[in-house]
Here is the input.
Amino acid sequence: MEFLQSIFVTPFVEIVDSPYFFFEVFFGGLMAGVMYSLVALGFVLIFKASGVFNFSQGVMVLFAALNFVGLLEHGVPIWLAFLITMAIMTALAFAVERLVLRHLVNQEPIILFMATIGLAFFLEGFGETLWGSEIKPLEVGIPNDVWFMGDAMIQQADVFAAVVAGAMVTVLALFFHYTRVGRALRAVADDHQAALSIGIPLNHIWIIVWAVAGVVALVAGILWGSKLGVQFSLSVIALKALPVLILGGFTSIPGAIIGGLIIGAGEKVAEVYWGSVFGGAIEEWFAYIVALVFLFFRPQGLFGDKIIERV
Amino acid sequence: MTVTDQQSRIGEQILHAENITLGFGGVKALNDISFDIRKGEIRSIIGPNGAGKSSMLNVINGFYQPQEGTIHFKGVPYRPMRPYLAASNGIARTFQNIALFRGMSTLDNIMTGRVLKMKASLIEQAFYVLRGKKEELEHREHVEKVIDFLEIQAIRRTPVGRLPYGLQKRVELGRALAAEPDLLLLDEPMAGMNLEEKEDMSRFIVDVNEQFGTTIALIEHDMSVVMDLSDRVVVLDYGRKLADGTPDEVRGDQAVIDAYLGVTHE
Amino acid sequence: MIYREAGVFKTSYDADMALLPIPMDKYFVIAVTLFAVIVVPFISNEYWLGSILVPVLILSIAAIGLNILTGYAGQVSLGTGAFMAAGAYMGYKFVTAFPDVNIIFGILAGGVSSAMIGIVFGAPSLRIKGFYLAVTTLAAQFFLIWLFQKQPWFVNYSISGVPTAPPREIFGILVTGAEASATARYVFVVCFTIALAWIARNLVRGRVGRTWMAIRDMDIAAELIGIRPLQTKLSAFAISSFYCGVAGALWAFCYINTVEPSAFDINRSFQILFMVIVGGLGSILGSFLGAAFIFTLPIFLNNFFGVLGLDVSTATIRHIEFMVFGGLIVFFLIVEPHGLARLWALAKEKLRMWPFPY
Here is the structure.
């Protein structure tokens, strides 16, 4: 009885009692969700254009951040470090196409998926061999003061991150709608065969889309790194982009964003208000279990395409 | 084959489809189709591409649920039918685009056709004792007969993914035959074959029908092959039934000549 | 002409369908088995038995389990570690609740509990496929580990949270816990391994194995010939998890001698997956080869740098290990998806011809 009360009554009483605190928790969660969204976004880009379920997207975030922070530590100015890391991520895209994807073109999706797990391990090992694995603080001039809304405390860094993320999504949207390359990418996403038959070379598409996903990973890595420091655990946290995708649908960019926000806010609120009832740290699995339950009811996600099977 | 021969071979109605209508969104793939299949006959469904032939097969097979109409199989009406239920009721099929299990050998592929007849518990299988062993041996024996019949002994152990197209089609027929079906559905069994392979396949189809008495419903768009094989033919066009009867009747039907023969062939 | 199959004529399907139809293979496997059970304990030292062979054999069992699910039934899992943990914790609960029951049943109880949990987390696999499963099995991974860590019931309210494996005897010889000799633990584990490998072989070549492979190769066609997708997938999940559960219980009772969550974290899941990929998807033999290879590679790497006289920090070696593993996975998937097992088969092919290759 007491247990039921602690699940169904007490948390809601607390929320009503101090709405500002709830708002703070909720808002903080949303901002963490922005990070999930960014990882999921890079993932959706690759999945749409090449049908590859890129498990290494999270590690790409870590890898980009490691390179960026490593360059900064060697006294490279921020803007140059950013450009060099972009170049590295583009080079990575070339390498992945040349060394991995090209050789697995007609393989089962599951084989490609497992290959990206291998890629994830390789990148993680490679990045840390180059730059070391200790936690590195990242300071790029993101404001770290707080604002107050009533009694609720809001991190300026969070707002900044949300603005940057929003700006990047806008740029990507413009890129897809108004550039030739962007239109080609959309064509490929709609229909691989048709795109091939009008002469869009698939290899180029792969390179472009992996490079774009690499840049998205870099931005995510910088934002995330300046909040938590650049460290190994980034790639584990980034795994939460996977349940985000289940919620949002594997092929939907708005889905990735909204899914990320839902998961981010949901797990924070759940942890703060319900965590202690279950012994704490339910954040670790909350997103996955939500995704699992979600799969029973709507396997294609909130915004994904309905799956129709043919014989 | 004489007329009396044919009549003694063909028996009762085995499947009866009434007023089948199937739509996808706004498109009607099948519109008010009725026909029957009799025991022991070779029944063909023909029509140009997009006529609804495959949809019809998929309805019989339980893969699609028609919005309207009923089907009786062996006198029992279909409830919402699932493919595995169709299979356990005695309907087996092959596919237009080969649907073999590519990673498995010819033998194992055909053995999967016997799956429904094997009842050994997991424990018996795990220790390869009692029914676990007995069934493997019995069914292997039956499968070997199918392999002999289709003349594919030499490729018994080859993974089917490595076989040429014509042989894959034959293995697929073998898998369907291994189930000893009451009704065998063949989806364009001769699509993409050269003349020689087509002749082989025709021979197998006729032999299956005569030796095992299996009722066969097949889809084809190549008229010439079908007319020689079939006892009766249904002609579909744009989801509607144009004609139904013996090959000779169908050949003479004006609507068929206009819609099908006139346009695509002669 | 060391190895040959020519001149072997089978006169019955029984003979043709025997586990090892070629006499050479049969004698070889029997010899290896006898060697492993009887000779190895006498010629190996404590270190080899307790620190290499025991863990490799246990991981082989887990790899067979994952191979059944991924290699044979085509369902990816990133939750192997969690299913092992389920075996370890539930095995521990069983053994402490029924201290007089033979330890073999304790280990099996761990496997059965894990199988049931596997069915729960495999249930969504009916509606989803391929990499969606990666996410649901990750759910198992994070949720179960959290559960065992945070809920004191699972460790009998032990204060440290990390109970030691209780010592148990068979025929009066200690086989579990820190006090048991390496030899006893080895013999106990090797017997389990042989029995489970034999059962796995029987399963994958029989009816249930064919239904798994049919679902893997083309699920729609499988359904159309009468294979029920849900039953088939769930049986794969259950049996796979059973193997993982037994492996987890053995890991806790016969290798690390404690029941702790960190032994079964997500890195364990990846480790087993790598064993399956490198060893060969869809091969029981490959599961052994993969387990031995992936387990010993880090040991080899450590010594390698030492031999070269390079002073490389352990952290760096660990990073290089990651690179090597990642690279190997990609390499094997591209060049030889059937893994080491296929290389073994090719070697046998060569041997059959030797010394006259034409």
